[in-house]
């Protein structure tokens, strides 16, 4: 399990900017993620990741690792790997499986 690596944390930020996939309240989103998807990591309040109201965190992440062709987040489940110093190491497409990132995480943590 990826979030069992010592020194590694998964953080989730729901967003409703992609085909309105997160229309619920923060409480409803939390309930769905924890019961239906068995999320065992922090799920923050819903934010915007693109546009003029994009959360400062996502403005930073996108400025550090732009996407293919455009910097905007194209779909939910875009992933960023950030080191202990806060530097964005890599950006992964929405369809990238968390298991495909495992070796990059191990390398970053020095446990490969």
Automatic annotation (TrEMBL):
SUPFAM superfamilies, A to Z: Thioredoxin-like (SSF52833)
Pfam families documented for this protein: GSHPx
Q: Which family does it belong to?
A: Belongs to the glutathione peroxidase family.
Provide the alphabetized UniProt keywords: Oxidoreductase, Peroxidase
| The keyword Oxidoreductase appears for this protein | yes
Q: Which PROSITE patterns match?
A: GLUTATHIONE_PEROXID_2 (PS00763), GLUTATHIONE_PEROXID_3 (PS51355)
Looking at the UniProt record for this protein, which Gene Ontology cellular component terms does it annotate, in alphabetical order?
A: cytosol
Write down the superkingdom of origin: Eukaryota
Which InterPro entries would you find in this protein's record? Answer: Glutathione_peroxidase, GPX_CS, Thioredoxin-like_sf
What reaction does this catalyse?
a hydroperoxy polyunsaturated fatty acid + 2 glutathione = a hydroxy polyunsaturated fatty acid + glutathione disulfide + H2O
Q: Which CDD domains match?
A: GSH_Peroxidase
What is the purpose of this protein? Protects cells and enzymes from oxidative damage, by catalyzing the reduction of hydrogen peroxide, lipid peroxides and organic hydroperoxide, by glutathione.
Question: Which GO MF terms are attached to this record?
Answer: phospholipid-hydroperoxide glutathione peroxidase activity
Task: Reply yes or no: does the keyword Membrane apply.
Answer: no
Query: From which organism does this entry originate?
Result: Olea europaea subsp. europaea
Q: Which GO terms describe its biological process?
A: response to oxidative stress
This protein is called Glutathione peroxidase
């Amino acid at each position: 399990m990826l979030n069992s690596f010592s020194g590694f944390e998964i953080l989730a930020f729901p967003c409703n900017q992609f085909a309105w996939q997160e229309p619920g309240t923060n409480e409803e989103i939390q309930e769905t993620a924890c019961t239906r998807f068995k999320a065992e990591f922090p799920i923050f309040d819903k934010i915007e990741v693109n546009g003029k109201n994009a959360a400062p965190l996502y403005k930073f992440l996108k400025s550090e690792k732009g996407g293919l062709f455009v910097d905007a987040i194209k779909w939910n489940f875009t992933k960023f790997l950030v080191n202990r110093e806060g530097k964005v190491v890599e950006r992964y497409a929405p369809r990238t499986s968390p298991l495909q990132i495992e070796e990059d995480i191990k390398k970053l943590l020095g446990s490969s």
